Here is the input.
Amino acid sequence: MYIPKYFRIEELVSKSIFKKYGKQAFQFFDDRALKTLDRLREKFGKALVNDWFWGGKNDSRGFRLPDDPDGTYLSAHKRGQAFDVVFPEKPADLVREYILKNPDEFPYINAIEANVGWLHFDTRNCLRILVFKPS
Here is the structure.
């Protein structure tokens, strides 16, 4: 089991998932996604996923339950393969551009979402690197 160096489980799951599973919720994630999250933090600095634990409103930027209204039915978030990350010190467009120019630094990123104010990356099984637009 991989446990990220820079992220607590509360940042990666909703309040309801945390209440039910606590740290055991790490089992729901693809370890490649968690390793990539740490790598992104090391490369781009401070990184934010969910902030509900600190009184914020974001609770579904990491793992989502199958019936979560955010995202599509078969979203990579609902398989523990995706994160929506905000880098306070770097615009999302610059992060995406860097990843696309340097894919070998992020070997598990197989898809990223374009035209959004955060970095959505996921580890789905597809040809590298699929760039898709919000639906």
About this structure: The radius of gyration is 14 Å. Strands lie at 82-85, 111-113, 119-122, 130-132.
